[in-house]
Amino acid sequence: MKERLEALKIEALEQLSGVNDPQTLSDLRVKYLGKKGALTEILRGMGALSAEERPVIGQVANDVRGAIEEVIDSKQEQFQKEETAKRLQSEKIDVTLPGRRGRQGGLHPLTKVVQEIEDIFIGMGYRVAEGPEVEMDYYNFEALNLPKNHPARDMQDSFYVTEDLLMRTHTSPVQVRTMQSMKGEVPVKVICPGKVYRRDDDDATHSFQFNQVEGLVISENIRMSDLKGTLLQFVREMFGSHTEIRLRPSFFPFTEPSAEVDVTCVQCGGSGCRVCKQTGWLEILGGGMVHPKVLEMGGYDPEKYSGFAFGMGVERIAMLKYGIDDIRHFYNSDMAFLKQFGRL
């Protein structure tokens, strides 16, 4: 058996010396060292050897395997170096080529509109207040003159978490929280931007989740004319210096008197078109004088102080500003749509 092993070694080394490609090298490894290879075939006869011969033959077999593996490993390393050299030669990088610019993100159109609204009101001396989106029923309804079983609650189908906890249906609760935190001090002059939630079916003009910005001013001798002047200044900065507004009587439980506010159509300038249904006006928000009961629940004496409040839908403002006809464009992550508003 020793002679067979030595002969196998000579044969294998002779075969390996002439190998010039990785595939042939792999085939020879299998032929001589594989599970069904020549070396394994010889070693199967060790069971017939005596106890004295087995260690000797085992040592010879290990020497033969080691010699063959050494040559194979050396050849394999040589082939890998040659392959690397070829790749380095063929895959040169032209460092003189201009680089590829990474895509830069941009602000979402709703974010841009909210920031613009905030900038306008901050410029008029307002500060920005925030509150929780998961709100207590007390702040969302009761403190805004909407007690339990009040018929006006039917105007807003809500997402309730528990009997006394819900997803806020407007940002007006922030106004109540602000009044309570001020503890009767004046002036109060805040805007409250944020997301709100209502059980609306999604269509071109409605969504179950949207954005609002509400405003609140409380001090002595605040009048309806102050509200009108504030909103006129706002719409002229948002839509252009020639924009006009009109107030139409309306009803809100938390303001009295209340009004719907229209602006001259941003498309036709008030002359009448398809967008404004030939009226020349577009509704954008609602507002009015803070109801005395709301002032009381907020910690203010309605005999001494008065105030106004208003609320607007950010999507509505954005649709008018940019001429968008479907609110769903804001939420569909359409890159072609979003690229119109900044770098993307």
TrEMBL record:
<keyword id="KW-0067">ATP-binding</keyword>
<comment type="subunit">
    <text>Tetramer of two alpha and two beta subunits.</text>
</comment>
<dbReference type="Pfam" id="PF02912">
    <property type="entry name" value="Phe_tRNA-synt_N"/>
</dbReference>
<feature type="binding site">
    <location>
        <position position="256"/>
    </location>
    <ligand>
        <name>Mg(2+)</name>
    </ligand>
</feature>
<dbReference type="GO" id="GO:0005524">
    <property type="term" value="F:ATP binding"/>
</dbReference>
<dbReference type="InterPro" id="IPR004188">
    <property type="entry name" value="Phe-tRNA_ligase_II_N"/>
</dbReference>
<dbReference type="GO" id="GO:0006432">
    <property type="term" value="P:phenylalanyl-tRNA aminoacylation"/>
</dbReference>
<dbReference type="GO" id="GO:0004826">
    <property type="term" value="F:phenylalanine-tRNA ligase activity"/>
</dbReference>
<feature type="domain" description="Aminoacyl-transfer RNA synthetases class-II family profile">
    <location>
        <begin position="106"/>
        <end position="320"/>
    </location>
</feature>
<keyword id="KW-0436">Ligase</keyword>
<dbReference type="InterPro" id="IPR010978">
    <property type="entry name" value="tRNA-bd_arm"/>
</dbReference>
<dbReference type="GO" id="GO:0005737">
    <property type="term" value="C:cytoplasm"/>
</dbReference>
<comment type="similarity">
    <text>Belongs to the class-II aminoacyl-tRNA synthetase family. Phe-tRNA synthetase alpha subunit type 1 subfamily.</text>
</comment>
<dbReference type="GO" id="GO:0140096">
    <property type="term" value="F:catalytic activity, acting on a protein"/>
</dbReference>
<keyword id="KW-0460">Magnesium</keyword>
<dbReference type="GO" id="GO:0016740">
    <property type="term" value="F:transferase activity"/>
</dbReference>
<keyword id="KW-0479">Metal-binding</keyword>
<dbReference type="InterPro" id="IPR006195">
    <property type="entry name" value="aa-tRNA-synth_II"/>
</dbReference>
<keyword id="KW-0648">Protein biosynthesis</keyword>
<keyword id="KW-0963">Cytoplasm</keyword>
<dbReference type="GO" id="GO:0000287">
    <property type="term" value="F:magnesium ion binding"/>
</dbReference>
<dbReference type="InterPro" id="IPR045864">
    <property type="entry name" value="aa-tRNA-synth_II/BPL/LPL"/>
</dbReference>
<dbReference type="InterPro" id="IPR022911">
    <property type="entry name" value="Phe_tRNA_ligase_alpha1_bac"/>
</dbReference>
<dbReference type="GO" id="GO:0000049">
    <property type="term" value="F:tRNA binding"/>
</dbReference>
<protein>
    <recommendedName>
        <fullName>Phenylalanine--tRNA ligase alpha subunit</fullName>
        <ecNumber>6.1.1.20</ecNumber>
    </recommendedName>
</protein>
<dbReference type="InterPro" id="IPR004529">
    <property type="entry name" value="Phe-tRNA-synth_IIc_asu"/>
</dbReference>
<keyword id="KW-0030">Aminoacyl-tRNA synthetase</keyword>
<dbReference type="InterPro" id="IPR002319">
    <property type="entry name" value="Phenylalanyl-tRNA_Synthase"/>
</dbReference>
<keyword id="KW-0547">Nucleotide-binding</keyword>
<dbReference type="Pfam" id="PF01409">
    <property type="entry name" value="tRNA-synt_2d"/>
</dbReference>
